[in-house]
Amino acid sequence: MKNIAVFPGSFDPFTIGHEEIVTRGLRLFERVVVAVGENAGKREFLDITVRVSLIRKVFRDEPRVSVEQYTGLTVDYCERTGASFLLRGLRTAADFEYERAVGQINRAMNARVETVFLLTSPQRTFISSSIVKDILLNGGDASSFLPSHVTREDIMRKRT
Ligand code: ADP
């Protein structure tokens, strides 16, 4: 059986915090599928197709990472992809409480999929898509929070 993990999120935009979880995930899994979804609770900053193409650019030299758009339940997407693992990052106690609920519900829906959590590096704990988005929208320099293949111009040019 292939050891595949799905890393789901809205990635709006994808940050170096997300990048680190994928890179570390590659030490545990043969393949990591970055699954880009809509989050009904969050207002969209970048169009989903733009998010997908920016993340593909980050991992263009890493054949073990694929980036796909998805809809529907994440556990159903795992089943369709042949993934037995769901990968998530944990920054804070607040993340934990949220992730615990989602992880337990996902397990209740499909016990064949195990959720695996990686703790964020301390220096990346404060990085979130919403803060990076605010910096970009207010003309600030967010480059130290963005993967090296993604520039401010890449993001702002592609905003709808
Ligand atoms: P969602 O809308 O599903 O919360 P996000 O794009 O905000 O999607 O986050 C996707 C995943 O990445 C989550 O597991 C989140 O905890 C994790 N994550 C977000 N920021 C960081 C970071 N700075 N370091 C590590 N993991 C992170």
- Topology pattern, helix = H, strand = E: EHEHEHEHEHH
- How many helix segments? 6
Mean pLDDT: 94
In helices, the fraction of residues equals: 25-40%
Integer-rounded radius of gyration: 15 Å
Low-confidence stretches: none
Oligomer: single chain
Spatial gap, N to C terminus: 41 Å
Query: How many structural domains can be distinguished in the coordinates?
Result: 1
For the largest beta-sheet, the strand count, sense and barrel status come to: 5 strands, parallel
Cα shape: globular
For the record, the CATH architecture stands as 3-Layer(aba) Sandwich
Bound molecules: adenosine-5'-diphosphate
Total DSSP E strands: 5
CATH topology: Rossmann fold
In spatial order, strands of the major sheet run 3-2-1-4-5
CATH class: Alpha Beta
CATH superfamily, called what? HUPs
Which strand-content bin applies to the residues? 15-25%
Sheet/helix structural class: alpha/beta
Provide a quick synopsis of the model.
The protein has 160 residues and is of the alpha/beta class. The protein has 6 helices and 5 strands. Helix 2 (48-58) links the parallel strand 2 (31-36) and strand 3.
